[in-house]
Amino acid sequence: MTFGDLLPEIVVPPPGPRSRELSAALGKLEAPGVNTLYGGEPAILWEEARGANVRDVDGNLYIDLTSGFGVAAVGHRHPRVVEAVREQSGRLLHGLGDVMAHPLRVELARRLVEIAPVDDPQVFFAISGAEAVEIALKTALGATGRPGVLAFEPSYHGLTLGALNVTSREDFRAPFAAHLHGHVRRLPFAGDLARVDETLKEGGIGAVIVEPIVGREGVLIPPDGWLSALAGLCRKHGALLIADEIFTGFGRTGRLFAVEHEGVRPDILCCGKALGGGLPIAAVIARRDLFRCWETPGEALHTATFLANPLACAAALAVLDVLQEEDLPGRAVRLGHTLGRRLSSWLGHIPAVEEIRGRGLLWGVQLRTAEMAKKWMLGAWSRGVLLLAGGPEGRVAQLVPPLTIREEQLAGAMGILEGVFSS
């Protein structure tokens, strides 16, 4: 076996001396709040990654159950992605944004409209998931003329101003409240649909934005039928349904997109993260008639210098090939069943574990306290397993491995996580 398929090996307690040295340097050079997970504490710095393995700057080898925030769905540095980027880098590194395109942009747009569960779709490319949400919200306003938005609690849609406006967590929103508009209504995720009906009936709401499965804020799965019923209420009241699939898209939950579990076809779909295989790219896929609101005789009303960057497009096309050829959504189902059974065995046997939730290869382990969750996460790091704990109360640890992870690696990581609880 080679790097990418290995079990963990810790050679120095993390974060090691080189990580601490670089963390200290970064703390002096970079703005606070973005260079460590916990203010002032040294971070683990990554040196290289492949498959499901990460090696830090001190030589420690980890199994990555974060997939780099879900980005490495096809695994870190997948050979097909690397080769596509290498080949494209010899031809064209950068285009001319919205003014002059390139062939891979055309091909990627074609592939996305072919697979998207959206009627008569077109694509609007973006750089990040948050920007995709911004574009979706702007599209809804432009197409309907209604500024109101219904969002859910909890939810996470990004931290740029428009996306922040529909993100639920008050910690993120409060410092910038003066810049946020007041046209957002909030209801509990997976809650009473009668309240949704009443809210939409009041008028003025042009869009309903929802994560089919809430990701960062706790891995919450709605009951069967809730999402399809929500889509029906949107149609009934003429509100556009925006599906935020930035985290759940591209096979993570066992379908290419999570809305497909209920046969829902949103008006607007946001995707990103896993699409680029490690390079920054996102997209909004929406009905053709909705995008007509962007038509202008002058300059583009929303664009970016690095729009549909050639390297990112090459990587994304390789990712779509790998997802299909290796049937990674199907693999997520198979491994997810095994993982779910093992996680479920923890209930009643591991006192710290309160609840288990998941689908495919997206799982949340809810601990009884935030302190327990943090201790478990740090204990896992120290033994060579990378996972993140968070959510509104900090009590949910996420298990988001690459869809390509070897079964032996996943089983080994689970054994380590169980060992942390018993230590």
Distance, first to last CA = 30 Å
Fraction of residues in H or I helices: 25-40%
> Helix count, per DSSP?
14
CATH architecture of the largest domain: 3-Layer(aba) Sandwich
How large a portion of the residues is in β-strands, by DSSP E?
15-25%
Question: What's a concise summary of this model?
Answer:
By secondary structure, the chain is α/β, with parallel strands linked by helices.
What does this structure look like?
The protein is an alpha/beta fold and 423 residues long. The protein is built from 14 helices and 15 strands. The chain has helices spanning 17-29, 67-70, 79-89, 103-115, 129-144, 161-166, 170-173, 193-201, 226-237, 288-291, 310-325, 328-344, 370-383, 407-422; strands spanning 46-50, 53-56, 61-64, 121-126, 148-153, 184-188, 205-210, 240-244, 268-271, 282-287, 353-359, 362-367, 385-386, 388-390, 396-399. The strands form 3 sheets. The chain has a 7-stranded mixed beta sheet, with helices on both faces. Strands 1-2-3-13 form a 4-stranded mixed beta sheet.
SSE topology:
Layout lengths: L16 H13 L16 E5 L2 E4 L4 E4 L2 H4 L8 H11 L13 H13 L5 E6 L2 H16 L3 E6 L7 H6 L3 H4 L10 E5 L4 H9 L3 E6 L15 H12 L2 E5 L23 E4 L10 E6 H4 L18 H16 L2 H17 L8 E7 L2 E6 L2 H14 L1 E2 L1 E3 L5 E4 L7 H16 L1
Parallel strand pairs: 3-13, 5-6, 5-7, 7-8, 8-9
Antiparallel strand pairs: 1-2, 2-3, 4-10, 9-10, 11-12, 12-15, 14-15
Helix pairs in contact: 3-11, 4-11, 8-9, 13-14
Any descriptors?
alpha/beta; 2 domains; Aspartate Aminotransferase, domain 2; 14 helices; Aspartate Aminotransferase, domain 1; 423 residues; four-stranded mixed β-sheet
